[in-house]
């Protein structure tokens, strides 16, 4: 038992390796997005009229809907982990399925927003504001897609004969998924609201 | 997951956080789109809007980290991975906004 424990957990802190790795990755992710946010601050403070005008062209009700989308998916992800931890397979599949659908819904709304911008002749090169807008939301959307792959994989696996029992892995995926929600929590007011 | 908490108690705290996140999202939209300060306030109104938006975002982020990401219940060592990037980011933002000259 003790050797199994020392293999699965970091010996000093007692944190499971997978979870420790995810938290280190998330710390690096914070710095990754910090680069964008600080670039945004510099560009905004030196081109305030450009940014105010750009933000006024964004569709904030759609973005608010997407915020709700991600908050719901965060709740269902937390519920899915709790369900699997206590061996409730059907609840896990239900909550994980809703999480996946919310992620799909998020991308559909994002697609609608992007195509509306393109049809109005607005591209990343249109202004410094839209350069930042497309970069930040684009990287965030890539993170959503990156989360959907393991969510879909675990969900599909739970429908197989062997099922899926490793709730600690789902918990680690959940950390990532909540982080994606967290980034959007900041993107929403910064891009759409505060001008 | 939560030390000594039953499934029902955990679910209850998740639902509580979810409701709070929804209410705060509503508040931030109302504050940004329907709360107008007098024209004569000029730049102060922008400062207020930015402050309200960011304070609500920070509160929402903390709720997600504390409950959904299990910081309240989990190994306290994990907090290091929040404090270090948070500190570095704050230094960066402080340098850009306060030390970086005129804003707004």
Mind explaining what this structure looks like?
The complex is a heterodimer of chains A (195) and B (104). Chain A has 195 residues and is an all-alpha fold. Chain A contains seven helices and no strands. Chain A has one domain (18-193): Cytochrome c oxidase, subunit III, four-helix bundle (Four Helix Bundle (Hemerythrin (Met), subunit A)), CATH 1.20.120. The mean pLDDT of chain A is 94. Chain B is an all-alpha fold. Chain B folds into two domains: 7-73; 75-104. Chain B has three helices and no strands. In chain B, helix 1 (7-33) packs antiparallel against helix 2. Chain B is flat. The termini of chain B are far apart. Chains A and B meet through helix 2, helix 4 and helix 7 of A and helix 1, helix 2 and helix 3 of B.
Give the % helix of chain B.
55-70%
- Structural class of the helices, strands and pairings of chain A? mainly alpha
Q: Compute the separation of the termini of chain A in Å.
A: 58 Å
What is the helix fraction of residues of chain A, given as a range? over 70%
- Average pLDDT rating of chain A: 94
What series of H and E elements makes up the topology of chain A?
A: HHHHHHH
What's the Cα radius of gyration of chain B? 18 Å
Radius of gyration of chain A: 19 Å
Strand-helix topology:
The complex is a heterodimer of chains A (195) and B (104).
Chain A (H helix, E strand, L loop, with lengths): L1 H7 L8 H30 L1 H9 L3 H26 L3 H31 L8 H31 L8 H27 L2
Chain B lengths: L6 H27 L9 H26 L11 H18 L7
């Amino acid at each position: 038992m003790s050797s199994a424990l020392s293999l699965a957990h970091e010996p000093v802190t007692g944190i499971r390796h997978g979870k420790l790795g995810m938290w280190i990755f998330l710390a690096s992710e914070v710095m990754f997005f910090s680069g964008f946010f600080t670039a945004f601050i510099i560009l905004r403070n030196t081109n305030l009229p450009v940014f105010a005008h750009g933000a006024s062209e964004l569709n904030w009700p759609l973005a608010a809907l997407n915020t709700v989308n991600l908050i719901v998916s965060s709740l269902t992800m937390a519920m899915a982990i709790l369900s699997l931890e206590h061996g409730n397979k059907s609840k896990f599949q239900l909550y994980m399925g809703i999480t996946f659908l919310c992620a799909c819904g998020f991308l559909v709304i994002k697609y609608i927003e992007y195509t509306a911008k393109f049809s109005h002749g607005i591209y990343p090169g249109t202004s410094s504001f839209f350069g930042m807008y497309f970069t930040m939301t684009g990287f965030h959307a890539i993170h959503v897609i990156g989360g959907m792959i393991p969510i879909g994989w675990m969900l599909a696996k739970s429908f197989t004969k062997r099922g899926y029992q490793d709730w600690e892995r789902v918990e680690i995926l959940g950390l990532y998924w909540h982080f994606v929600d967290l980034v959007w929590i900041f993107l929403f007011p910064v891009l759409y609201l505060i001008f | 997951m939560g030390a000594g908490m039953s499934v029902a108690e955990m679910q209850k705290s998740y639902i509580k956080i979810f409701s709070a996140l929804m209410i705060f999202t509503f508040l931030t939209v109302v504050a940004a789109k329907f709360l107008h300060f007098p024209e004569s306030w000029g730049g102060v109104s922008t400062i207020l809007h930015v402050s309200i938006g960011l304070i609500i975002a920070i509160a929402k982020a903390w709720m997600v980290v504390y409950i959904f990401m299990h910081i309240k219940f989990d190994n306290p060592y994990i907090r290091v991975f929040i404090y270090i990037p948070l500190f570095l980011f704050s230094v960066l933002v402080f340098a850009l906004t306060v030390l970086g000259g005129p804003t707004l």
